[in-house]
Amino acid sequence: MLPWWKERVFYQIYPRSFKDSNGDGIGDLKGIISKLDYLKELGIGAVWLCPIYDSPNADMGYDIRDYEKIMSEFGDMDDFDILLEEMHKRDIKLIMDLVVNHSSDEHRWFIESRKSKDNPYRDYYIWADGKNDKEPNNWSSFFTPSAWSYCKETGQWYLHLFAEKQPGLNWENPNLREEIYAMINRWFDKGVDGFRMDVITLISKNTELPDGKGEGYVFSPEYFALQPKMHEYLRELRNKCFRGRDCMCVGEATFANETNANTLVGDGNELDLIFQFDLMDIDGGSSKWDLREFDLLKFKSTIEKWQKTLDWNTLFWGNHDQPRVVSRFGSTESEELRNRSAKCLAIAMYLLRGTPFIYQGEELGMTNYLFENVGQLRDIESINLLKQNDRNKDWAWKGIKAKGRDNARTPMQWNNSNNAGFTNGNPWIEVNPNYVLINAEDEEKDSNSILNFYKKIIKLRNSNDVLINGEFNLLWPDHKQLFAYERIYENKKYTIICNISNKNTNLPEKISGNVVLSNFDVLEEFIPFGAAVYVNDD
Ligand code: ISL
Ligand code: CA
């Protein structure tokens, strides 16, 4: 028997933007409960819920003040218990986000830790002396020029790989680790089915804190990602929390590559699944803001590489940190192309070998937002980017429009009433005005909609031996427009063909079998973003 997480399609919920139940403009747990039937209809078998814990929201919940309290805007623990019960009633599993590389600076551990050098919580965080009145080393963070902030109470600096308000937890400290394990176990005892572990590859840092090579502040993952002790901690975590439970843990494996990925999932003693970001980096340069054209040949070799490297992949086109896939890799030039390219991309990704993770709104073909001024932005990453690039504003804006994380965070478009039916109040972030055209209620009624197509794909894959277990073979690796592959199991074969380009093209060879799913009238010639799935029984 396969573990449950190999046979289900996941759906990622960003609670702040999913559904508001009380008119304060912020999505909440009651809102999610009211939409569980929608998820069931879609064919979803599990949900990854972004952080719902008490937080001052410097990084929208990824800065946790209390790991065992629900964010008051989202509801309370009673609402959570009902949510979990209602999900389980519908046979939907729930995995929680676990953010334990850092906490909020408002967490009681940090409030204690910063007080004095001999505070019992001092070593829950990473403190160091400065060098000649400057930071302890030259590391930069994901969100700020320096990864260090100074505390005048004790004259030392603390490390934060993200914002100042996200001090890094010190996993070297066994007391800290025990507190985290106990917290995780209490969530398990409540009945949750697993965790998505935020930047889990970063939890161990080189304790010598060596300078990174280069001038100025330097991003230095060689000293804080995938360090030897990270493996030790993950094994301990598995033994103390996961072992013996019917659960799943997927790690956000920032900096995982084909060489080290199997050290995380290979022997089953650390993680079950990883998110790696090779595809998400495909249109970036030295930084994600360095925009590059989509390169289909690179896309194909990346997919093939990961299908061959891991026995089981996570399959995703986006998440709350990424722009909307149809704007990014599809086409929004016309309604027709938006519709067809969204379906094409879904076929391309979700029939691969692995577990699909669909990000909320993707199933509607939701698009990027046309952000125009800083007042519309909510994400600390984009806001900091603008601050840090005052002399390079055009470049920064270009990046934010294409890749800013707020693109994925505009409210879910439920219907064509005010604010897309997301809220009766003022939404915390603007609703995309295209909700009058793109919304769940209208798409439910339209047999040609992206939403109904997602239902078909999910249905096709949910109980399909070949699409779940089958091996993967890339076809026509050098073809410049077609992405095509086979899935083979016992004597059955599926062939998946997608024209990921703006031009027509002919198939290089005839494909036998019946078309079981397609987004156009399939002929020898494939139109732009035309995609088809063939099945063959002999
Ligand atoms: O979105 C990114 C920057 O463009 C990613 O590099 C992201 O910062 C990285 O993948 C880590 O993401 C996770 O941890 C962050 C949080 O801001 C993200 O939302 C979360 O997914 C810090 O907790
Ligand atoms: Ca609300």
Describe the structure.
By secondary structure, the protein is of the alpha/beta class. The protein is built from 15 helices and 20 strands. The chain has helices at residues 29-34, 36-42, 77-89, 108-113, 174-190, 228-242, 261-265, 296-309, 325-328, 335-350, 380-388, 393-403, 440-445, 450-462, 465-469, and strands at 10-13, 46-49, 53-54, 66-70, 93-98, 127-128, 148-151, 156-159, 194-197, 248-252, 273-275, 313-315, 354-359, 471-475, 482-489, 492-499, 505-506, 514-518, 525-526, 531-536. An eight-stranded parallel beta sheet has the order 11-10-9-5-2-1-13-12. It has a five-stranded antiparallel beta sheet with strand order 14-15-16-20-18. It has a three-stranded antiparallel beta sheet with strand order 6-8-7, with no helix packed on it. Helix 5 runs parallel beside helix 6 (228-242) and helix 10 packs parallel to helix 14 (450-462). The model has no long low-confidence stretch (mean pLDDT 97). It binds 6-O-alpha-D-glucopyranosyl-D-fructose and calcium ion (CA). The site of 6-O-alpha-D-glucopyranosyl-D-fructose (ISL) has 14 residues, from loops.
Label this structure with key terms:
five-stranded antiparallel sheet; TIM Barrel; binds 6-O-alpha-D-glucopyranosyl-D-fructose; Immunoglobulin-like; globular; binds calcium ion; 15 helices; eight-stranded parallel sheet; about 550 residues; 2 domains; alpha/beta
